[in-house]
Amino acid sequence: MSELKRRTFFKLGLTGALLTAFKPSKAAELMEEGVNSSKLRRAIQPMVVSTWNHGLAANEAAWETLSAGGNALSAVENGVKVTEADISNRSVGIGGLPDSSGKVTLDACIMDENSKCGAVACLEGINHPISVARAVMEKTPHVMLVGKGAREFALDQGFDKIKTPVKEAKKAWKEWKKEEKRKSPEINHENHDTIGMLAIDQFGNLSGACTTSGWAYKMPGRVGDSPIIGAGLFVDNEIGAACATGMGEAVIRIAGSHTVVELMRQGHSPQKACEMAVNRIIRKHDNLENLQVGFIALNKFGEYGSYSVYAGFNVAVKTADKAELEDAPYLMEWE
Ligand code: GLY
User: What residues act catalytically?
Assistant: First the structure.
């Protein structure tokens, strides 16, 4: 199928469809059956996929929105807000670990089925950066606000202030500060667990959200991949959506989530696209020590995939039939 035909097919084939009872493995077959296939019209059911085990609780909130007839955009926003509000989470939202100076700075972005998007970076002391990102998308002519400007915008919009770091995060930062030999940011698979979430709604539309407090004890002013459209998150409603977790610098270098979506556009499955993006990262780096990156991807048919550089990454999946945490396939074991 030519690129043009494929794109037309994706667009026309799902318009107005009532989407239930999807069997992911049938996607290729359904594509072959064409635009008017009755099977295709029944092909897709709402679903949510998200990164790491905190995705399980977040998916439940997203599912509540989808079940109540809400769209994918509201589902991903409501989903990741659960993680942002969890004070025991050290890598997302209110409970996040600070930068090297002791300040917690939050990054987030959101993207909908019309390729509208919004982002905030280096946002301090404001609850729910994902909702601020959505407000940037819906209420400004811009895509991204950072630092002081983002905070002022959020306060103008009536967002609540929060006090960070929380006690436990401050204690961890003080311990880190004490140990002279550990003055560089901490990179490991535990402190890179951004939540990225992708959802498909009853109308067959896709949206995504990504939010994090970033690399623990990062340099002040550092921004990772999570708020960068195309790096931490990308959605193209004709094709699919992807998001990333792990070392943001490596993800930015290959425009990771955009790369995954473009690989799907070329005809690769979400699984294969995630694997190819990870392999591209591997080829661009000589030193792979601690270089954990994971991608998840969801295509227009509800097929999903995940892959990471190192073992330990997992993807939370929610459909009408299941709510599960699945281990992502990976390239290497930790030494
Ligand atoms: N992926 C999150 C970060 O690097 O900040």
Answer: 194
Can you point out the beta strands (E) in 187-329? 195-200, 206-212, 233-236, 240-246, 293-299, 304-310, 314-318, 323-327
DSSP 8-state assignment for residue 102? S
- Using most ligand atoms within 8 A of CB, pick from 51, 122, 217, 247 the residue to mutate for ligand 1: 247
This prediction's pTM: 0.88
Contact by Cβ (8 Å): 260, 66: no
pLDDT in tens, 177-210: 887 556 666 655 554 679 999 999 999 999 999 9
Give the model confidence (pLDDT) of 5-55 as tens digits: 333 233 333 333 333 333 444 455 555 555 445 555 456 799 999 999 999
Two tokens at 152?
Answer: 């002022």
Does residue 191 line the site of ligand 1, with CB under 6 A?
Answer: no
What are the counts of helices (DSSP H) followed by strands (DSSP E) for the chain? 11, 13
**Residue nearest (by alpha carbon) to ligand 1 atom 5:** 214
The reply to whether ligand 1 has any atom less than 6 angstroms from the CB of 194 is: yes
What's the length of the chain?
Answer: 335
Q: Which residue has the tokens 């909702």?
A: 131
CA trace torsion 279, 281, 285, 289 (10° rounding): -80
Any ligand 1 atom below 6 A from CB of 192: yes
Amino acid at position 41, single letter: R
What are 119's two structure tokens? 């982002």
Pairing of strands 117-123, 233-236: unpaired
Instruction: Say what the alpha-carbon torsion angle 57, 59, 65, 68 is, to the nearest 10 degrees.
Output: -100
What are residue 69's phi and psi, to 5 degrees?
A: 90, 5
- Report the nearest-CA residue for atom 4 of ligand 1: 248
Q: Which domains does the chain have, with CATH numbers?
A: 3-33+47-332 (3.60.20.30)
Q: At what angle do helices 129-139 and 147-156 cross, to 10 degrees?
A: 80
Residue 245 CB–ligand 1 contact under 6 Å:
yes
